[in-house]
Amino acid sequence: MKYAVDKKEQFVVFTLLEEKLDSTLSPQLKSELLTVHAEGYKNLILDMESVKYADSSGLSALLVGNRAFNEVGGVFVLSSLQEHVIKLLKISMLDKVFKVVDDNEAAAEAIFIHEIESGSEKDEEEE
Prior knowledge:
Layout: E1 3-7, E2 12-16, E3 20-21, H1 26-38, E4 43-47, E5 53-54, H2 56-71, E6 75-79, H3 83-91, E7 99-101, H4 104-126
Parallel strand pairs: 2-4, 3-5, 4-6, 6-7
Antiparallel strand pairs: 1-2
């Protein structure tokens, strides 16, 4: 599986450099997402600009990543989706589950907003 990882202070940008996200790649993607999570990162942007096709096993890998990052109060953002992948998310009603944005800039903004909102919730709990 070809991919690039760019680790920032608040999040990781994981760029999938494959055209197909299917049963041959899904196990490795799950493993890589969980590895980044285990390194202590709470927020991840999955840049899927290169991905032209995904199937149910690909969606399963995305759900694993989404669950892992959400469990620790972080956010898992899908960025730069191609039309086929957007249609698959809508058909499977997962467009309501995932945070989907147009590009990495919007994804970074969504993470900063999430951090601010979760920070203010912690402040309210402490009072």
